[in-house]
Amino acid sequence: MVFPWSIVFVCLLHVGASDPVRETFECSFDSGLCDFVQKTDDDFNWSRRSGSTLTVSTGPECDPLNCSGGQYLYIETSYPRTEGDRARIETPFIGGSGKHCLSFFSHMYGSTIGCLKVKQYSRDTNLETVLWEASGNQGNSWYQQRVTYESPSVYKIIFDATLGKADGPVTFTGDIAIDNVTIQIGACSGYSLFNCDFERDVCGWRNVSVPGQNFELSWVRHSGGTDTPNTGPTRDRTEYDGHYLYVESSRTLSGDLARLVSPNLERSSTGVCVKFWYHMYGQLSGTLTMYVQHGNNSRHEVWRTQGDKGEDWNPQNVNISSIHTDQDFTILFEAALQGSTGDVAIDDLSIQHSLCGS
Ligand SMILES: *[C@@H]1O[C@H](CO)[C@@H](O)[C@H](O)[C@H]1NC(C)=O
Ligand SMILES: *[C@@H]1O[C@H](CO)[C@@H](O)[C@H](O)[C@H]1NC(C)=O
Ligand SMILES: *[C@@H]1O[C@H](CO)[C@@H](O)[C@H](O)[C@H]1NC(C)=O
Ligand SMILES: *[C@@H]1O[C@H](CO)[C@@H](O)[C@H](O)[C@H]1NC(C)=O
Ligand SMILES: *[C@@H]1O[C@H](CO)[C@@H](O)[C@H](O)[C@H]1NC(C)=O
Ligand SMILES: *[C@@H]1O[C@H](CO)[C@@H](O)[C@H](O)[C@H]1NC(C)=O
Ligand SMILES: [Ca+2]
Ligand SMILES: [Ca+2]
């Protein structure tokens, strides 16, 4: 009887001594795996890389935060990988009670993209639960993901990626990448880096009603040309069947307003750069204004343009100085319509935590 008990004791002691529990975790993969461990209950390993992946039409061009030399983590899906192959990597044990925030960047571009699951492995229950997942082609961009969850006292986070279904003879366009994984105590605050081409959805942007205007003029996600001739884009800026957001002007009168607000964005001590493309074509083009907002009441204009801008999409960069980003904020677009040939559209919007061109 003594012998088996001492084995149990030694094992417990071993687990406790070799697996210290942390309160927070962060990894940019720029100089290593930061104590991430490749799991062995899978088919292949995650790899670290700088620049583009080995195959065209899949994977990122480079690190999301440092394109000239930063490294990210990804699954290389070239031969000998096949449909359904899985790669799993886990953090060390993280502890603490209450809400935690996991933040990371994901890139899932290619015709045979499978699934990325982020799981929580609880030490007490020995079970894995899915905290976040996405599957299929999400477009050629990095997206910041933020997940608030309850800590089950001691746990690990597992990144579990699977290669998707073959696309005809092609299986190798399924590279999934992640970067800048951080785990912090407390619920997540706003996005620190934002990127949306409106291909998958509206990325959390919302219509907001205008006080005193007794109907809601909407920003809608749309593909192809708009409903009215001689105004609006004929298609997405980059993809033939791509999507953008626009306000349909055909039943509007001069002075009608359409407002669109961003998700909550994280404060930045350096100010931010908002980059986007807009389209304002039509004889009765009105005004497009961008505001930065704190809460619902304080609003500050940061950019404005007016009138017909021709049939092309126009690029625009807008600085928002640090005096307006010292707390979490939102961005509001307001289209002030002139009449029935004044469609206004926006697309390919990104927000960076530094002023434009610096
Ligand atoms: C990226 O990760 C590094 C180190 O892990 C951290 O200092 C930095 O703030 C992160 N940047 C963003 C935008 O999350
Ligand atoms: C995956 O990584 C682990 C840990 O570095 C290593 O022991 C193992 O041999 C690797 N597997 C493959 C297939 O490269
Ligand atoms: C980007 O990465 C390279 C290579 O590691 C490094 O030399 C450079 O300082 C990094 N740049 C920034 C802005 O972090
Ligand atoms: C705005 O409202 C319209 C009408 O309800 C809806 O179709 C559209 O998707 C909304 N736009 C956004 C960005 O949520
Ligand atoms: C802003 O307005 C929305 C909708 O009217 C409301 O749900 C939200 O709580 C308000 N936020 C603040 C900070 O007042
Ligand atoms: C943004 O601010 C930076 C630093 O002051 C400046 O160099 C840059 O030209 C500005 N860009 C725009 C689009 O205003
Ligand atoms: Ca990196
Ligand atoms: Ca688009």
Describe this structure in words.
It is built from one helix and 23 strands. It has 358 residues and is mainly beta. It has one helix spanning 2-18; strands spanning 25-27, 37-38, 47-50, 71-74, 86-90, 94-96, 99-108, 113-122, 128-135, 143-150, 153-163, 176-185, 194-196, 206-208, 220-223, 243-247, 257-261, 272-280, 287-294, 298-306, 314-320, 330-336, 344-352. One 2-acetamido-2-deoxy-beta-D-glucopyranose binds at residues 317, 319, 355-358. Residues 1-18 form the signal peptide.
What is the topology?
Blueprint: H1 2-18, E1 25-27, E2 37-38, E3 47-50, E4 71-74, E5 86-90, E6 94-96, E7 99-108, E8 113-122, E9 128-135, E10 143-150, E11 153-163, E12 176-185, E13 194-196, E14 206-208, E15 220-223, E16 243-247, E17 257-261, E18 272-280, E19 287-294, E20 298-306, E21 314-320, E22 330-336, E23 344-352
